[in-house]
Amino acid sequence: MNAAARIRREKVRIQAATMFEALETTAQIASELRVSEKSVREWRRRWAAGGAQALASSGPGGSDCKLSDDQLKQLAEVLDEGPVAQGWVDARWTLARVAEVTERCFGVSYTLRGVSYLLHRIGYSQQVPTRRAIERDPEAIASWHRRRWPSVRG
């Protein structure tokens, strides 16, 4: 979750605190704030124990990244070069390959799930590439479409 979303959620919890003070019911609060009653009950328990401060955001979740900002940039550059540049025969990154590259380049090991989070953090998304031959010649394909396709199509 990004910082803006965390702030937005914290504001909702603080609104709930003012509603707790006004003695509104759990159902009313959940309906008005468009959240689950379970969340409201949890917030009410925290509010009763520590006031509105207990509903403040505790910051971003999860552990700190094992790679520095510079290393993340270097990793992105390595990924952009493609897996063939790193010694694999096909042009497809897998989580296991990225984990291996991360260990090889930076001496840092990640689980596959950790690699998935790492890639998401630096802006990559999961994509399944269309299978294309490495020998593919885009100019020859374009030429075929211009010259042959009209006669094939009829």
From TrEMBL:
InterPro entries: Homeodomain-like_sf, Winged_HTH_dom. Coiled coil: none annotated. Residues 90-146 form the Winged helix-turn helix domain. This is Winged helix-turn helix domain-containing protein. It holds the Pfam family HTH_33.
